[in-house]
Each structure stands twice: as structure tokens, then as C-alpha cells.
Amino acid sequence: MPAVTVADWTVLPRVITAPTQLEDRAPISVTTAPRGFEGEGFPVHRAFAGVDPTLLDPFIHMDQMGEVEYAPGEPKGTPWHPHRGFETVTYMIDGVMDHQDTHGGGGSITDGDTQWMTAGSGLLHIETPPEWLVVKGGLFHGLQLWVNLPKADKWLPPHYQDISRDDVGLASTPDAGALLRVIAGEVDSVKGPGSTHTPMTMVHATVLPGAEMTVPWRTDFNALVYVLSGSGYVGRDRRPISSGQLAVLGHGETITVGANQQQDSRHPALEVVLLGGLPIREPMAFAGPFVMNTKAEVLQAFEDFQKGKLGTIPTVPHADVHGEIL
Fold it and tell me: What are the Pirin C-terminal domain coordinates in residue numbering (predicted)?
């Protein structure tokens, strides 16, 4: 980690340091993600556990997948399962994951790629490591984020976006002490390639030891800072934050994140994800893989799934459809 970088950060567009009189977002809370397991048994950190859902809106759920070094035969994925009413964003930092869904979307994501799946009215999908990776083993690390859809968009036809690492917007701070990868949204005119139904911004930033970044942030967006690895602080009051912790920030015009001078040898810099979105502020009924507005709609989703209305599992193996990466 990280997967996407450039040799010389000084040649990138600069995120202009905001004037100090602007209101910087102070942390409301800092929570530590508990560990768990997902799918067929791969380890995750539940980033949003214990956080008031109204502070997360429009985001619902986020797992940090790994970071884990698999031995041969150990890599795991998720079996076929349904979704309805929201979008899943899978950002692969290290390793490879194959995707297939019953609406024709699919492909392999690796080392900085992102798959953006709008479940909308509903579909089935599967995420698995390719067979060659299962045989070989290797590093696995990524994020999966669930983004809610407003009521008006929950019944849209499913849609799939394959976002290449080469399309991510890149920028640095004025002193080149931090590298920003803009996956979706916009930071100081640097745009990400992700097309979103819910207005939002998603950034993966690397902050070098002893460096600090202050980035402009839309005042109508909420603001979350999740630490993938390393240690540092958030806000002008320098609230400490470290690996596996989420900071929920209050109102303001900028976000400030800094890295401690001393980092561990395995992770030489602070790696953070900045998230912000326009709150939907609609009733939400959430059960398993379905995120709707009412309990009745969730029950209907389960019924539709059981009746096969969200799709049928293909008989052709994934590798035969998309090919094998060697």
C-alpha cells in the first residue's frame, strides 16, 4: 500500500491551503472499528460500528477488508447474494477481486481499481478472488462502502462502473507532503471519475510523517475520516487518530489531517480515506442486503429474492465469462 502513486508529487495539481479564518471541521467522535468476518470468512474492520446513522447519512456501512497476507489456498470471497436500494463501492488497494452480477456487470479489480455497483431495483452478485490467486496466495486489502440511494432512485435499473486506477484524480498539498487520490466527487477542482446518484466525495490520501494537509470541503456535506494505517491527528486541535479508527467531523469548510513524525516500519505514512456526502434525510429500513424506506419494502425485497425476481445465478463459471488474469 498504496496502490496508486507517482514518482514526483510536486508535478501534480495542488490542493490550495485554505485561509486560516475558515472554519475547520472539529471531530465530534472517534471510534475504533471492531473486527469481524465477511463472506466465506475474510477478515474485516467494521468502520461504522457504534456510530449514529444520522451522522453517517448518506453512507450506511463500510468494511476495511484485510489487510491480510494469504498463504496458498487461503484467499476467500463472498458467495452469490442479493442487493436492492443502494450502491456498493469496492476499492481494491492491494490484491485482486473478481466481480460478476446478474445484470451483466463484472470484471477484475486490482491495485487501485474501484468497482461501483448501483444495485437499484435489485440484482445478485458475487465477489471472489481469481483461481490463480487462490492457488498462489498473496496480499489482500481494500474497502467496501455502501451508499444509500434516495427514494426516487431506489428502483433504477442496476448499473456497473469499472473505475481504473489510471482514471483516479491525483493532487498534492502545496508542500507535496500529502498525495490525494480522488475517486469520486471533487476537491478544489480535482475531480474523481466515479459517477454517483447521491452527491458525495471519496478520497484516499497518503500523508507523509510530520506533514499536514488542509483540504476544502463542501459545507452541505458531512465529513468522515477513516484511518487505513498509521497514526496522526485530525482537526486543528490535533485529536489523535490511528489505524482502524473513524473520526466523525462537525460543521466547517475545511478538513485538517496530520501524520505523526514517527510511524511504524510496516506502514511508513498515514493512510486515510476522506468521505463526505449530501445527507438524504429520508426514513431508512435496513435488513441484511436490502436498504429501503419502509419495513414493508424490505420484506418485499426478501420475497422477491426468494421468488427469483432479482436474478438467476448463471451456470457459466465467472472465469469462463471474463477470462483469467495470469
Answer: 203-310
